[in-house]
Amino acid sequence: MCGIVGYVGDGNARDIIIDGLKRLEYRGYDSAGIALHEAAGLVVRKQKGKIKNLEDSIAGETFTSSVGIGHTRWATHGAPSETNSHPHLSESGKIAVVHNGIIENYVKLKEKLQKEHGVKFKSETDTEVIAQLIGLYYKGDLMDAVYKATAEMEGAYAIGVIAADEPDKIVAVRRDAPLIVGLGTHCNFIASDIPALLKYVRQIYLIENNETVLITKEAAKIFDSDRKEVKRDVFHVTWDADAAEKEGYDHFMLKEIHEQPKGVGETLNRRLDDDGSIKLDGITISKEELEKINKIYIVACGTAYHAGLVGKYAIEKFAKIPVEVDIASEFRYRDPFVDENTMFIAVSQSGETLDTLEALREAKRKGARILSVVNVVGSTVARESDDVFYTWAGPEIAVASTKAYTTQIMCFYLIALYMATKRGTITADYYNQIMGELKALPEKIQRILDNEKQIEELAKKQYKLSSIFYIGRGADVGVAYEGSLKLKEISYINSFAIAAGELKHGTIALIEDGTVVFALATQDRLYDKMLSNIQEVRARGAYVLGLAKENNKEIEKQASDVIFIPECADEVTPILTVIPLQIFAYYVAKFRGCDIDKPKNLAKSVTVE
Ligand code: F6R
Prior knowledge:
Layout: E1 3-8, H1 13-22, E2 31-38, E3 41-48, H2 51-58, E4 67-73, E5 88-89, E6 95-103, H3 106-117, H4 126-137, H5 142-152, E7 155-163, E8 166-175, E9 180-183, E10 188-191, E11 203-206, E12 211-215, E13 220-223, E14 229-230, E15 235-236, H6 252-258, H7 260-269, H8 287-292, E16 295-300, H9 302-318, E17 323-327, H10 328-331, E18 342-348, H11 354-365, E19 369-374, H12 380-383, E20 387-390, H13 403-423, H14 428-450, H15 452-462, E21 467-472, H16 475-491, E22 494-499, E23 516-520, H17 527-538, E24 543-549, H18 555-558, E25 561-565, H19 573-591
Parallel strand pairs: 16-17, 16-18, 18-19, 19-20, 21-22, 21-23, 23-24, 24-25
Antiparallel strand pairs: 1-4, 1-10, 2-3, 2-4, 5-6, 6-7, 7-8, 8-12, 9-10, 9-11, 11-15, 12-13, 13-14
Helix pairs in contact: 3-4, 4-5, 7-13, 7-14, 9-13, 9-16, 14-19, 15-19, 16-19
This protein binds fructose -6-phosphate.
């Protein structure tokens, strides 16, 4: 999704902004651009494709500016092209704008600017409308012009604006799209996300909705919609800057796969008291309120939705509350039954996914208690929730989510156990058994990672496949969906996941000689049934890649190849089962020469519908 970076200080604005944009590459983009205050006025340079193209195109130019704004664009209005890339200028060339989000009434505004003011447009974008509108209102006071323009703009957006006649400042606005301010010494920044600024600053202002920001070299001020200055606490970022780098791995995805023992361990250990009980700092719901909850919705998109499927399994099993898991883009439009006895759990790595956010707002309007499971601290989903449960995955850069998924599942185990103890639906023995299993997970994930070579070899053997099926039963079904999504998004292979028992109701028609089937058989009580399903597809000529716990050796007789995971209770297998699937997807994509960290057509943070 689009990324914004702005800088005011003494340094070389071009270098600092381009560096910041590179750190936002993980959000996904198709073009990049920059606007700088030079002696001759505003200079705009933009290029389709990677930031490298932009860098190469301006390599021979000298820029002295220490103020500017930059942007990575993910096309929404108008195709990816140099013309449609940001920054956009007003007709006078004196206002430059970068923008993340969508201006819903841009057609109306554009017509007004064209008909009533004779403004001529160069691009097809909604962003140019912003630049022209601000240009129309600009009478020497950028803040004033921005306030007047944004009063007419509808939609969800964040913008950064500079004016040729006020070369010492950047004005930025947040309305339902992420925006932060970085506080430096004799310099200040704006950005869409923290990693863009980690190299330069650790002191951050998290900007709220409908706030306008004015930054100069020496000051960063925030104003509300009535133009009154508001005070904001400084948020200190403790992440190590290196955490956002690859640390020697070929791809962020592989690095993040390997960070799972740590992420899963931290997500658990930070919530455990010395006596083994769960302390949930971000959760204020009382025992009485919890007792009133008679239904839970878990709502999310993509991988986060798949984590929700495991969450349902855990909450229903331990806390005995009925759970419905829904895709956010469906939930928000289907008038679901929600009341004050409903708990709504939003799951989101970025905390900025628009569909999840709108589903959350819909549930809130209907009176539900909102709990969110989020990775990005201070993100919009987190801020709009009653209770927040943070995953401790650290920044996830690769577009394909891995460590966010396993840490989200760990959150669900903790939430489920916490609810179960409060509601008295779990015995002390069972609680202690499951807690012991959870504590052992980081070391067991590490053992699977130590077996990476075997999975790499299997991927090497199969990477030319043209389609694949993932099957499983019980807790393995949700993981099959996730394994399938992981493979398709980074390797572009047609992949399909289905509950193994459903195969015979239609899909088995597609199984033929050489079809690849990944069969997940980790559930002890369903193991024999899975072996039958494996026989079913083998009989039709399938190559079966089996996955089972290490003591269940029978599968070796049925499957073509087998990956074993360490022994553990059925309840907690998903965190382990998914690891070989992530590694398999990674190596298949690698052998196929795919752009693993930035797959085509995908964005890390989907802040549009
Ligand atoms: C897949 C993936 C996406 C996200 C989805 C939700 O690997 O990353 O399916 O899970 O777009 O994103 P968040 O969790 O940021 O709300």
